[in-house]
Amino acid sequence: MTDKTIFKKIIDREIPADIIYEDAHCLAFRDINPQAPTHVLVIPKKEIVSLDDLEDEDQAIMGPIMLAIRNIARQLNLDHGYRVVCNCGPEAGQEVPHLHFHILAGRALTWPPG
Ligand code: DGP
C-alpha cells in the first residue's frame, strides 16, 4: 500500500491547512509557498495522481471542480483576473502526486511561464 500524499493528509485533516472552500467533490486551501498574493490549490477529494490519470468516470467530478474554481475566484473577489495552472508530470513541475489546480492572482502574471 502506498503512503498517503500530503494532500490526502490535508483531506483527512491529519495535517493543518488554511482551507477556504469545500464541497462534495473538492477542497481548496492556500498554498504553503505562495507564488502570488493569492495562491490557492483546488484538489479533488478523490485520489487522482494527475490530469493524465483521469478516467472517463471522472468527468462527473471535473465539471463541478471547474465551477468550484469559478466560485472560489468570486469568493476571493479576484475581479482583476486570475490564472489557473495544472502541472502534469515531472517536466511540468508537478511535485505532489495528487491532481491539483493552482489559482494565482493579485499581481500581473507573465507569459510564457517558466
Ligand atoms: P506542484 O508543483 O504543481 O505539484 O505544486 C504543489 C504545490 O503544493 C506547491 O506550490 C506547494 C504546495 N504544497 C506542498 N506541500 C504543501 C502543504 O503541506 N500544505 C500546503 N498548503 N501546500 C503545500
Provide a concise account of the structure shown:
The protein is of the alpha+beta class and about 110 residues long. The protein has helices spanning about 5-10, 60-75; strands spanning about 20, 25-30, 40-45, 85, 100-105. It has a single domain (about 5-105), classed as HIT family, subunit A (2-Layer Sandwich).
Give a written overview of the molecule.
With 114 residues, the chain is an alpha+beta fold. The chain has a single domain, classed as 2-Layer Sandwich (HIT family, subunit A). It is built from two helices and five strands, in the order αβββαββ. The chain has helices at 6-11, 59-75; strands spanning 19-22, 26-30, 38-44, 83-85, 101-105. Strands 1-2-3-5-4 form a five-stranded antiparallel beta sheet, with helices on one face. A hairpin with a 3-residue loop joins strand 1 and strand 2 (26-30). The model has no long low-confidence stretch (mean pLDDT 97). The chain binds 2'-deoxyguanosine-5'-monophosphate. 2'-deoxyguanosine-5'-monophosphate (DGP) binds at residues 6, 17, 29-33, 41, 87, 93-96. 2'-deoxyguanosine-5'-monophosphate is lined by residues 6, 17, 29-33, 41, 87, 93-96.
